[in-house]
Design a protein that fits this description.
Structural class: alpha+beta
CATH class of the largest domain: Alpha Beta
Strand order of the largest sheet: 3-9-8-7-4-5-6
Protein name: TrmB family transcriptional regulator
CATH superfamily of the largest domain: Endonuclease Chain A
Order of helices and strands: HHHHEEHEHEHEEEEEH
Pfam family, one: TrmB
Number of strands: 9
Number of helices: 8
Strand content: 15-25%
Number of domains: 3
Helix content: 40-55%
Largest sheet: 7 strands, mixed
CATH architecture of the largest domain: 2-Layer Sandwich
Domain Transcription regulator TrmB N-terminal: 5-71
Distance between the termini: 91 Å
Length: 234
């Protein structure tokens, strides 16, 4: 019975304690230790765990413990098994359909700039950046790019490359924060938020990249079109 209970996710001690309570009825902590072989120092932790899972009740002074009814134990285990099987069914279906789960990684503080620099230096073809304001540390990192660099920002002219300077009432005269998004080689994205805290979010999934392109590319096309008009003027 202990081995069967363990197969349902019970620990060794939880299984032994539950079996003792089912066999003996109401027991004190000392009696549970005596009948189950669990170290007395571990009994209360085991009881708290079993209570939290809904298999044991505590009553009286001094405290005694008893297992819930057999029907309740079986019902609870059956429900949890059904839930687990449903999750397993859904995940197997995802795997068979080729559905991908896209992961992102969160960075904070100094590690944000370290990750940004890593992505900039490793990019081979193109880096496209849309950012409200190029803070000095971000500008320095982007200047290390070894490939084509496209930047849209309120102070983009401070960088070499294909840069487009845009003004917005939201970011006018605001140099204390920088919120933006960068795409590297159409394969990786990095969102950055610098204000009272510094946060970066990195991802490589196709969905994330395509979503990021939808945010940046329409604006970039318009800026390129406007620049071309100006260059064609006599």
């Amino acid at each position: 019975m202990i081995e069967v209970l363990k197969s349902f996710g019970f620990t060794e001690y939880e299984a032994k304690a539950l079996v003792a309570l089912i066999a003996k009825g109401s027991l004190t902590a000392r009696e549970i230790a005596e009948f189950s072989g669990i170290p007395r120092t571990s009994v209360y932790d085991v009881m708290e765990s079993l209570k939290a899972k809904g298999f044991v009740e505590e009553f009286g002074k001094p405290a005694k413990f008893r297992a819930v009814s057999t029907e309740e134990i079986i019902t609870t285990l059956s429900k949890r098994m059904s839930e687990n099987l449903e999750v397993l069914k859904e995940e197997i279906a995802k795997l068979r359909s080729g559905e991908e789960v896209e992961l992102v990684k969160l960075y904070r503080g100094k590690s944000v700039f370290e990750k940004l620099e890593e992505l900039v230096i490793s990019a081979k073809d193109e880096i496209v950046v849309l950012i409200s304001y190029l803070k000095p540390e971000i500008k320095e990192i982007l200047s290390k790019a070894r490939c084509r660099l496209v930047v849209i920002s309120s102070n983009a002219s401070e960088l070499a490359g294909e840069c487009y300077e845009i003004k917005s009432p939201v970011v006018k005269d605001r140099t204390d924060f920088a919120h933006g998004l960068a795409i590297f080689d159409s394969e990786k994205i990095f969102a950055i938020f610098v204000n009272n805290v510094t946060i970066g979010i990195a991802g490589e999934g196709e969905g994330l990249v395509q979503f990021s392109k939808l945010m940046i590319e329409p604006l970039l096309r318009e800026l390129r079109r406007e620049r071309l008009k100006i260059e064609k003027q006599p």
